[in-house]
Design a protein that fits this description.
Organism: Cercophora samala
Shape: globular
Protein name: Zn(2)-C6 fungal-type domain-containing protein
GO molecular function: acyltransferase activity, transferring groups other than amino-acyl groups; DNA-binding transcription activator activity, RNA polymerase II-specific; zinc ion binding
CATH class of the largest domain: Alpha Beta
Helix content: 40-55%
Distance between the termini: 64 Å
Radius of gyration: 29 Å
InterPro entries: Acyl_CoA_acyltransferase, Fun_TF, GNAT_dom, Sterol_Uptake_Regulator, Zn2-C6_fun-type_DNA-bd_sf, Zn2Cys6_DnaBD
Strand content: 5-15%
Largest sheet: 7 strands, mixed
Structural class: alpha+beta
CATH architecture of the largest domain: 3-Layer(aba) Sandwich
Number of strands: 9
Keywords: Nucleus
Length: 662
Amino acid sequence: MMRRRHKKSRRGCLECKKRHIKCDETRPRCINCTTVERNCQYSTPGYQSPSETSGSPAPVSVPQPTPAPVSVSAPASVVASDHALPAVSPAAIPMLDFHAFSYAGDMNGKIDIVHMQLFYHYMTNHSVIYPFVDYDGGLKRIIIETALREPFLLHSILAMASRHLSETGSSNTAYYHDLAIELQTHALSLFNSFDVEYFAQSIQRRVPVFLFSAILGFHALCDMLAYRDDAFPSNLARLTGYFRLHRGILAVMDGYWEDLKKTELRILFDNIVPRWYEISDDGGSDCDDIKQRIQDSPNLDDEQREAFAKVLKYLQWVFDAKPDYRGRAHLLCSFAVMIPRPFVDAVEAGKPEALAILAYFYAALHFCRDIWLIGNSGQFLLTSLATHLNQLGPEWSAWLEKPCQMLRESLEEDTLNTQSSATTSDQSLPHGSTTTSTTSLVSTAAMGQDIVISRPSEADARRIAEIHISAMDSNPLLHAQFPTPEGLQALHRFLEAETLDEIRDPVSGVLVARDGPAGPVTGFVKWTSPSHPQDVKLEKGDIVHLEACCRRFLDEYASLAEQAKERSVGDKPCYRLSFVCTDPEYQGRGVGTLLTRTVLELAKEDNLPVYLESTDVAVSIYERLGFRAIDSFEMRIPGRNDAEPSVLYQEVCMVWYPFGQI
C-alpha cells in the first residue's frame, strides 16, 4: 500500500499515542479525539500547531507517488434511466492514482468491471445518493469529482452502491454485502494511511474528509438497522455508537464551518441545509403528550429538558412531513447530527425519559420504511424498547401509548391496503388465540412482517428435526448424550418421527415460525400443559434406546430436571416450555422471542404460569420476557476437546406468571 511520506512527530496527544494512531496535533483537541468525543490532552502544552501560529495555514508539501498517468474522459452529460447524471467537465476530471487502489482481495489491485458497475450504479440510481439528498444533482457532481481525486472516498461510494445492491438487488445479495464490507474496510485503510496533517492545514482538503465522514456515518446506520438482536442493551449500544460516529461529522468540522461554506460545498449550505433544518414551530400534535411529560418530570435538569425539547421539535417535523418523500429522506440524513449531546448521553445511560423519546424516533423510522435500508427496523426497535420500559415499571407504559398507537394505526392501514395480514396465516393456531392488545400487535409486527406463526404440516417434521439439531449444536450436553455422528443421525431420525406424531395430534403443543406465509420453517416451539399434554420428558422416552447414545447422561439429566421442576412448581398446573429453537441462519430476527410470546399468550388465556429450564446464555433473553430465575441444577459432562476433559453443565429454572402475579 502506498503511503504519503511525512515527518515523524512526537507532539501528538496522549489519547492518540495510547491507541498508536497518527495525531494531527490540532489544538486544543485533535480530529481523532473530536470525532469520537474523547478527552484530548497533550503532554506539551506550550507547543502550538502551525495552524495556530499563522492567520492562514501554510500549505504542506506532500510528496506524491508518480504512477503512469491515466487520462479519463467522459461525455458532458449522461442520461440515466430516470434521472440525468450531472454534467462533469472532462477537463475537471483528475488523473486517477491507480497505486492507491492496490490491495489484497478479489480485484488483485485493479479497477475491474465490478468497480465500473458499482460506479455506474451510484451515478445513475437516485436512491443510492443518501445521506446527501440532492435533487438537482449539484452535490452528487461534487462527490464524484472529489472521489476521483481521493481514492478513499471513491472506495466509500463504491461500498455504498454495493450495499444498496445487496439490499435491493434480485441476486448475488450475499456477494454484494461482503463486497460492501471489503470496500468500506479498504476505504478506511486508505484514509488512515494519510498523514493527518495533509487534511488538517487546508480547508479545501477538509472537503473530502467531510464527505467521507458523512458517508461513513451512513454505513454505520446501515449496519445498525440491519442487525437484529433480542437483547435491548445490544440494540441500544449500537444506536448510541452510531449517534456518536455520525455526530462526529459536525465535530470534525468544528471551527471550520464558515470556511467550508466558501468551498464547492456552498451548495450544501446555501441550498440543501436550509431545506433540512427548516423546522416549523406550528406543526402537528404527535409529540404534545411527551412534551408535557418531559416538562413535568422531576428527574430532569434544565439542560436535559432543553435538549429533549429540541429532539422532540425535530421529530415533530418528521411526523409533519411523513406523507412527503423528501421529508422522510431528511430524517435519515440529518437526525443524528442535529440531536444535542445531552440527549445522546441520557440515551446511553438508559434514562427512561430519553428512551421514551427514542420510541418516537423509532416510530418516525417506521414512517421512512420505504427507504431501502430502513424497512421494518422501526417496528423491531420500538418493540424491543417497549419491552424494556415495561420491565422498569408500569408507569412507563403510558409514555409509549402514542408511538405504539401511531405504529398500530400504520400497520392497520398497511393491512387494509394489501388486504392481507402481515403477521398471521390462515392456518388455525391451537387452543387459545393471541390477544390484539397494543403491546401484542407491536411485538408481532416489530419482529418482522415476514415471520408467520402457525401449526406445522406433516411435511415440516424433517425440517423441525434439522433445526433442533443445528440450533442445539453449541450445547455441550447434546454432544455428551450423543457423542458420535452416528448417534446424531439416529437422534435426527427419532426427532423426525416423534415430531410427526406430535403434528398429527391436534392438541399437541408445537408451533413453527415461517419466513413468509409460504416460506420455509425458521424455528419452532414445543411445550406441554393441561390443554397440551405429553406423557414424559424427551430424555425419559424411547430415546434412551437409540444406538450410539450415552444413556448415563440422558438418565442423569432427566432425573435432575424433574427434581428441579418438583422443587419449583410442584404438582401445580402450568405450561412447560420444552424447546424453543431457531435456525442459526435466522437468529437475530426475533423468531425465538415471537414463538415464546405466542405460548405466553396461550398461558395467559388459561391463567397459568410457564416453567422452563434455560442454559446460562439464554437467561437474559427470558428475563426480558418476564421470566424470573427460581432454581438451578448442574451436572459434570465430558468436554468437547482434550484441553477440557470435563465441564460443569448448568441450567437455570425459570417461571413466568400471567399478569405479573406470583
